[in-house]
Amino acid sequence: MALYTKAAEILEKVEKQQGALKTLVYESKFANIKQLFALVCEAQKFSPILEEIIVSTKLLKHTKLKMHLAKVLVYDLLVGRGLKCGGSWKALLMKHRSRLQSELARMKVKRKVSRNEDLLPGSVRRPAGDQLPRYVRVNTLKTTVEDAVDYLKRDGFTYLGEASQLDDLTLKARQFVKDPHLSEVLVFPPKTDFHDHFLYKAGHIILQDKASCLPAFLLAPPPGSHVVDACAAPGNKSSHLAAVMKNKGKLFAFDLDAKRLATTSTLLLRAGVTCHQLANQDFLKVDPDAATYADVEYVLLDPSCSGSGMVCLGARGPSAEPQKDAARLASLASFQLRCLNHGLRFPRLKRLSYSTCSVRSQENEEVVTACLRQNPGFRLVPLLAPWPERGAPPLVQCLRASVSGTRTHGFFVAVLERCGEAENPKPQLTVRIRRPELTVLGPPASEETPEAALDESEASECDDSATAAGGVAPEEKKRRRRRRRKKKNRGVTK
Q: What local confidence, expressed as pLDDT, does residue 135 receive?
């Protein structure tokens, strides 16, 4: 009964747009997060149909149930895998089961469809071939990709090697491949369940959508770095950052919600993360100039957003209150911009990754554009050239993700880099200028200058050390003076 009570509570908040579904589910601290998320997600998708059935059969009048509780119960009774409760609620619903089933059948006959899924609008319905694969990130803090693959093969899975294109991600039961873009991500058929698998329980694999793996992968902080995860809960990206850093350095993880931070702590413990420092604190109130953060060079910012890229949320039709929608988006965009500006204030910052699980330009390209105007000392880094979806022009350096284009949830990622980081390479390094269309994100700034990921025109826009055409850089002048002094000294010796 607790499942349906909590699901009804969350469904009501989601439909009143009082929060994102995923956030509300994690905040609930419900024992079975997966079960709760799936129920609310599906009940929300079928919400108009369920409401029509409930109203037509006058279920609320006969049972005294409230609408959202009735929706989640009727969903499991008619569309799901059956009621998962006993007691008075089950007895009540079973009493009205025949009338509810008859009304559902009448709807299908009237609309000339045979499946429950076909009752949904075209924008919501998803063919079986479009279901998202199950992505699994190998946790390299505890194992290697090779060992994980060997274990899964011994467990009865069939490994087909590394995928080379998106079509290779269409898999049959018990098959899996290595992702073509992210070498630590393995891909399985949709709905492959790992929650009871040894590798998951031991923290050797993390169940994380491929698009959600992009921010830490693209930020690429080297081992020993000081890194901030500004909005850390529920912790998947934090654990990924720690893996990229090889558990060396410091990872400062902030979240305002104590319950969500507790979930993060549990996840990081299972993943074997030891370099983290959790803080139940509003990131906007963190002082970037504090001595504690003097060495922070990388920031990962994945702030609250509309969640419109999540498959079950993005499927929702337009709201009956467009003005309320517009106001909420404007409020979110304002908050996201404040977080982004705040993240750029860390004095030694080299790179910041900004991401959302939203498909709205207002939360993505528009926020980044406004930030760049207010912070001329930063620029965009061209990202992952083979990736099939780019940011809306002119921000094509950014990445977008979608169900149809990348076989993931909807997502957006931008990486901002401080101008000047690439313009003063170490003397022993030779900077190779490459065209953006040929560039895949390379080593972090400490190993290879980020200028190598830019074309000449972009590099010159932020080159504070460059002189006018035909001029000589100050460092070169100093070297020439030293050479002249050495020659003069040799002449005196002779």
A: 97
- The set of long-range contacts for 457-466, using a CB threshold of 8 Å and a minimum separation of 24, is 458/379, 459/422, 459/423, 459/433, 461/379, 461/419, 462/377, 462/379, 462/419, 462/420, 462/422, 462/423, 463/419, 463/420, 463/423, 464/419, 464/420, 464/423, 465/420, 465/423, 465/424, 466/423
What is the pTM for the complete model shown?
Answer: 0.70
Report strand pairing: 250-254 vs 226-229: parallel
pLDDT for the residue numbered 463: 30
Helices 97-110 & 87-95 angle (0-180, nearest 10): 50
Query: How many whole angstroms separate alpha carbon 308 and alpha carbon 358?
Result: 5
Q: How many CB atoms lie within 10 A of CB 389?
A: 17
Q: Which of 41, 213, 305, 357 is the catalytic position?
A: 357
More confident residue, 285 or 494: 285
Residue 405 half-sphere exposure toward CB, CA atoms < 13 A:
17
Under a CB-based contact definition with an 8 Å cutoff, are residues 43 and 316 in contact?
A: no
C-beta separation of 362 from 305 below 8 A: no
pLDDT digits (tens, 9 = 90+) for 23-52: 788 778 788 888 898 899 889 889 999 999
* pLDDT exceeds cutoff 80 at 369: yes
Helix pair angle (67-74, 2-15), 10° resolution:
120
| 102, two tokens | 């008859």
Task: Flag whether pLDDT at 377 surpasses 80.
Answer: yes
Residue partners of 345: CB distance under 8 A and separation at least 6: 288, 289
- pLDDT reported for residue 296: 98
- DSSP of 347-379, one letter per residue? TT--EEEEEES---GGGTHHHHHHHHHH-TTEE
Is residue 357 flagged as an active site residue?
A: yes
